[in-house]
């Protein structure tokens, strides 16, 4: 949340009821024969992969795969064969591999790559359906289809309260043998119900258990279910014999969605953006098919998950035609929409050069900068704004917009010399407010703010320059709100307030021919912060603001008459409800925190509206196309998770995949700010407002309408409560062994580790609290970890961290070796502005705050020879680079880059004594990195692999022959990193690492 006026709103937490069906996570007690594949002769291990075709409408299906440790097949892969209704399959020989990585394609350029992560599959029979991986044969033998001449049982199983996305029936006829685990795949019968009819021969009953194909079982609390012939239903452990068909009233879904309306197509250079209004359906629209004709490449049909599609790389001066169809979950397809056309122009004179680096984000420590406050490379784009004098910035010669992309390009080597390989920058879109240097008051989301750019130093130039140095750019993005001036291209208010003799100082005289860009000076007013487009002396045509122009009876701080609509408000009618929410937040842990305004300067988007979604998706597609490496998502908690999971996150993955391929999409890093300023695991008991909640996919279907779905999801998850939330072992070792993480339930959004952040007043507390939350995060190895930021310090402090240099060194030693991605706010390497108020808006000079200008510390020249290594430096920047925490940071980065376990490894504290001590391991292909870490305190490790361990800090060598290793306390801020078969000492001794 970014604001420059104080909010005085109450924080309250509602009591939440926690009710859920608890199922034992154990297999049925009846012995079962291990599953084997008999579909193909093979020389080693095999995997039979079944792929659901129901919603695809593909004419061909290919499996593109790579056995673990092996090479990928040649694109598009191997054609799959028909298996049974709605399924194709392929059996592959894995040799000695224990699994495979896989993607699927229609052979014509349309891919299913698990949202950019690829599918991690094992061996035996495997199903992939709508992104969910399970283990069964969905076509399992005619013996399970109820076609025999003996007795039959039809079993319906309800997963409505379980969140399962597939179901298997594991059974044994009375007196007969059990099916092979996990049993036979059940078919979807209707919403929340699965069905299977099985032959019993002469038996008149059966024992049964159910599972989701991924190890979660319902075996009636280990008693198994006793079912008879005929139709039985099983719901919430209750069996109903001779039951009615629970889906009889529903019947098959044969109704097609409505035809997409208002299809639009516009061309820019050789790209066309197609958008349309959302279709409707009785059960819900699953996606869209966009058909393009024209040009020399023939007809193209692509799947789209949202209501906007960007078509790039087209031919010059060519007319293309587009139609759109809607598809529901049953595969019903609407009639094609009306045909629209667009004619391309010429290719850009200078094609965009940006391509994301596309590597695992966990390898890259992050340096976070407020671009406008970091380094001034071009003084001609500096701007002070309307608060320049009042804030005290003018007296300091310190305009709010001071740093820029040119300055950042010129000091990339400083950041690299610190050892960072990723730079998180504040939002780049054109901002508009009285104090908008930070970037969180977006006005034109399609335009880069000119106050940040210079000739030869555009945003694209920054991205390209960073990539040339092997450094990533993470762009801060805002989906939740616009500026109080609205969002150009979507909606801007017709007028704000009355311009009378008193308010003429604030509202400028109208200039019809001038367009605000924050940089250009309007000639009548002499201001770059001109606002003459937002006043009137008479009520404007089309005004919707209630009681416009009538005095409120109040006075401004200056004593001027206040009129209705003088200032933005969600309840005045000034902003249309189609595009903006219409309320103020009352309960920060309530539903209204996701659907109301945070502050008058942050006009809250109605993100459940299709046009708003299209506006934002289209805007951020532009920056994806420029080659940014990831998005940091501001105020993520103020948008419902179901909206993220339905619209925005799939759109990001779809765009990156389309432009740069599946590998880039897999590593495009998205991390959200889910601000939970508490020290407990769940934010005051509200799962919907807890950071880890946003790392998960939805577990059930909701209404097709996004507004209704948001309310349904909020109620459903709150009713489940904290005990009903999913858990994960993705961050944890199994003993000493690394295991392949299961990201099948990941939403694609990672998080800032708010709990560690809140507890970094003491490193031991941060460590303890971080561990406690990790089982509720889909994969905590992707958590972004920092001590303080542009908003808060630990324990919701409003000042920059001032715990002392030793404490800073200890915090850094923990962050750089524990799970997660270490992140540093600019200047913390020198304890810049320690103890100063982080933000006071325009009520005090920026120079006195935690957002002060840092460029004075960077004057001179600097060249980095590698990450964490200075080739040369002169001037003030050389003095900065000589500071003790800088030396500490450089060596930490050198060590982390040399030990893969410290980058992406899972961890465990099992068998370890010590305050901040843990073991980490990462295994991939030929890489097997195992490290024992202790920060500050002594530690003893037992049950570890025997072998030779070398400390990356001192070079000390220890040979383990009895599974035990002890380490003396290295001292506060110091640490030991004993690596099995490691390289030995990395870097040179410094003030803390020695």
TrEMBL record:
UniProt feature, compositional bias: Polar residues: 378-394
Cofactor(s) needed for function: Ca(2+)
Recorded coiled-coil stretches: none
Signal peptide: 1-34
Residues that span the membrane, as ranges: none
Family matches, as InterPro entries: CBM25, FN3_dom, FN3_sf, GH, GH13_cat_dom, Ig-like_fold
Single biological process term from Gene Ontology: polysaccharide catabolic process
Keyword Hydrolase belongs to the record: yes
Keywords, alphabetical: Carbohydrate metabolism, Glycosidase, Hydrolase, Metal-binding, Polysaccharide degradation, Signal
Protein name per Swiss-Prot or TrEMBL: Alpha-amylase
Organism: Streptomyces longwoodensis
């Amino acid at each position: 949340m970014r604001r420059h006026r104080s909010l005085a709103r109450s924080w309250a937490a509602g009591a939440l009821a926690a009710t859920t069906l608890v199922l034992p996570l154990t297999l049925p007690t009846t012995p079962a024969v291990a599953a084997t594949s008999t579909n193909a002769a093979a020389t080693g291990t095999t995997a039979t992969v079944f792929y659901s075709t129901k919603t695809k409408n593909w004419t061909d299906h290919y499996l593109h795969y790579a056995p673990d440790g092996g090479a990928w097949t040649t694109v598009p892969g191997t054609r799959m064969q028909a298996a049974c209704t709605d399924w194709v399959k392929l059996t592959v020989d894995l040799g000695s591999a224990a699994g495979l990585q896989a993607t699927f394609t229609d052979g014509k350029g349309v891919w299913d790559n698990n949202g950019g992560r690829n599918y991690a599959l094992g061996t035996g029979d495997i199903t992939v359906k709508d992104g969910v991986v399970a283990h069964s044969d969905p076509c399992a033998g005619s013996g399970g289809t109820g076609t025999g001449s003996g007795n039959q049982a039809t079993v319906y199983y309800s997963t409505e309260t379980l969140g399962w996305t597939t179901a298997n029936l594991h059974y044994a006829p009375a007196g007969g043998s059990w099916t092979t685990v996990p049993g036979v795949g059940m078919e979807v019968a209707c919403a929340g119900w699965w069905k299977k009819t099985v032959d019993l021969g002469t038996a008149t009953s059966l024992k049964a258990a159910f599972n989701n194909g991924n190890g979660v079982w319902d075996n009636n609390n280990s008693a198994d279910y006793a079912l008879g012939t005929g139709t039985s239903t099983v719901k919430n452990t209750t069996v109903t014999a001779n039951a009615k068909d629970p889906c009889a009233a529903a019947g098959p879904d044969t109704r097609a969605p409505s035809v997409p309306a208002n299809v639009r197509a516009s061309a820019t250079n050789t790209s066309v953006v197609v958008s349309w209004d959302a279709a409707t359906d009785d059960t819900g629209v699953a996606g869209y098919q966009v058909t393009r004709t024209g040009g020399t490449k023939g007809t193209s049909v692509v799947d789209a998950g949202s209501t906007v599609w960007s078509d790039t790389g087209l031919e010059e001066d060519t007319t293309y035609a587009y139609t759109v169809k809607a598809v529901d979950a049953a595969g019903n397809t609407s009639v094609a929409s009306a045909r629209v056309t667009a004619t391309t122009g010429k290719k850009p004179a200078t094609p965009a050069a940006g391509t994301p680096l596309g590597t695992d984000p966990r390898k890259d420590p992050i340096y976070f900068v407020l671009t406008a406050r970091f380094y001034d490379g071009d003084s001609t784009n500096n701007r002070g704004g309307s608060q320049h004098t009042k804030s005290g910035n003018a007296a300091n010669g310190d305009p709010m917009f001071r740093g820029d992309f040119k300055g950042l390009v010129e000091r990339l080597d400083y950041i690299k010399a610190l050892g960072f390989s990723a730079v998180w920058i504040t939002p780049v879109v054109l901002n508009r407010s009285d104090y908008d240097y930070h970037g969180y008051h977006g006005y034109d989301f399609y335009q880069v703010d000119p106050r940040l750019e210079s000739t030869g130093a555009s945003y694209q130039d920054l991205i390209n320059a960073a990539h040339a140095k092997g450094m990533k750019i993470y762009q801060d993005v805002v989906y939740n709100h616009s500026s109080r001036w609205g969002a150009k291209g979507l909606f801007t208010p017709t007028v704000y307030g009355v311009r009378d003799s008193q308010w003429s100082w604030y509202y400028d005289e109208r200039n019809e021919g001038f367009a605000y860009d924050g940089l250009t000076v309007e000639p009548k007013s002499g201001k770059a912060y001109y606002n003459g487009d937002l006043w009137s002396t008479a009520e404007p045509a089309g005004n919707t603001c209630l009681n416009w122009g009538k005095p409120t009876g109040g006075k401004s701080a200056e004593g001027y008459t206040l009129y209705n609509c003088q200032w933005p408000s969600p309840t005045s009618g000034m902003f249309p409800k189609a595009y903006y929410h219409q309320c103020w937040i009352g309960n920060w842990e309530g539903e209204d925190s996701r659907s109301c305004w945070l502050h008058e300067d942050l006009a809250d988007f109605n993100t459940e509206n299709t046009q708003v979604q299209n506006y934002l998706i289209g805007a951020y597609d532009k920056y994806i196309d420029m080659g940014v490496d990831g998005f940091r998502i501001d105020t993520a908690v103020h948008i419902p998770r179901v909206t993220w999971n339905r619209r925005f996150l799939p759109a990001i993955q779809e765009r990156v995949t389309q432009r740069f391929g599946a590998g880039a999409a897999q590593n495009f890093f998205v991390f959200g700010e889910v601000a939970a300023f508490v020290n407990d695991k769940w934010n005051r008991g509200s799962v919907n407002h807890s950071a880890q909640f946003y790392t998960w996919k939805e577990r059930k279907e909701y209404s097709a309408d996004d507004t209704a779905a948001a309310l349904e999801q909020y109620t459903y998850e709150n009713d489940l409560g904290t005990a009903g939330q999913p858990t994960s072992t993705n961050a944890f070792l199994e003993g000493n062994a690394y295991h392949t993480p299961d990201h099948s339930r990941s939403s694609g959004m990672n998080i800032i580790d708010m709990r560690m952040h809140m507890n970094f007043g003491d490193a031991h507390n941060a460590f303890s609290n971080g561990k406690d939350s990790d089982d509720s995060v889909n994969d905590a190895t992707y958590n972004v970890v920092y001590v303080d930021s542009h908003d808060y310090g630990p324990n919701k402090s409003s000042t920059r961290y001032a715990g002392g240099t030793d404490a800073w060194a200890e915090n850094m030693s923990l962050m750089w070796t524990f799970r997660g991605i270490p992140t540093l706010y600019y200047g913390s390497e020198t304890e810049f502005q320690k103890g100063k108020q982080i933000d006071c808006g325009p009520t005090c000079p920026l120079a006195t705050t935690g957002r002060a200008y840092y460029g004075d510390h960077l004057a001179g020249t600097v060249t980095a020879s590698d990450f964490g290594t200075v080739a040369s430096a002169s001037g003030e920047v050389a003095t900065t680079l000589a500071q003790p925490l800088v030396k500490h940071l450089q060596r930490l980065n050198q060590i982390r880059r040399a030990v893969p376990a410290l980058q992406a490894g899972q961890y465990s504290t099992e068998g370890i004594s010590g305050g901040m001590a843990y073991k980490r391991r990462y295994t991939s292909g030929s890489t097997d990195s195992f490290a024992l870490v202790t920060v500050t305190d002594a530690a003893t490790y037992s049950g570890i692999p025997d072998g030779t361990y070398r400390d990356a800090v001192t070079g000390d060598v220890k040979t383990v022959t009895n599974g035990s290793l002890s380490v003396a306390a290295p001292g506060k801020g110091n640490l030991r990193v004993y690596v099995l078969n490691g390289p030995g000492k990395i870097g040179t001794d410094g003030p803390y690492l020695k």
